[in-house]
Structure prediction request, 227 residues.
Amino acid sequence: DADVTQTPRNRITKTGKRIMLECSQTKGHDRMYWYRQDPGLGLRLIYYSFDVKDINKGEISDGYSVSRQAQAKFSLSLESAIPNQTALYFCATSDKRGPNQETQYFGPGTRLLVL
Amino acid sequence: KNQVEQSPQSLIILEGKNCTLQCNYTVSPFSNLRWYKQDTGRGPVSLTIMTFSENTKSNGRYTATLDADTKQSSLHITASQLSDSASYICVVSASSGYALNFGKGTSLLVTP
Prediction:
């Protein structure tokens, strides 16, 4: 969905390096999320933000940090990358219509390889 | 612990045939269940969303059913097309707190 963009699309880095993955959206949604996807596993939530001043940890936040620079931008940082952070990372957005109507819109993903 | 189990893990069918994917969950208290389609190299895209009171929901050739009593859902694909080849993910929400529980997905391959 072109309304949610992620950069870079692919990244190779070395153990110990700090990297940032960026997400931008033009859907005007308040809520943004970062997930990782590993082969054979379901999507797992890293962090989520319901507005610019609201940041919450997901189930696997250790080793990650986020920044919500604006309503439309939500960045994920790996402070010191390690090989088991090799995964496919997705950003998603949703509007504030309530849990029974809320649909998440996903970006195209960033494929990260940590050597 | 809230869990979402999908079966089969993978499936190969001939173009034009129908198929049914299964999702069993233990999420409680239940809020809603979604089915997403994820094409290779792309992000998931929502197909259907069902609440407790809904038994079935259709989106073109995709029909989802929900049995909240047995905590089971199915996604039926009619007259499959090559473009249906993708991973199908079942996602269940609890009504308390904020958490989406993702299944591992069923990988579907439609062959000519």
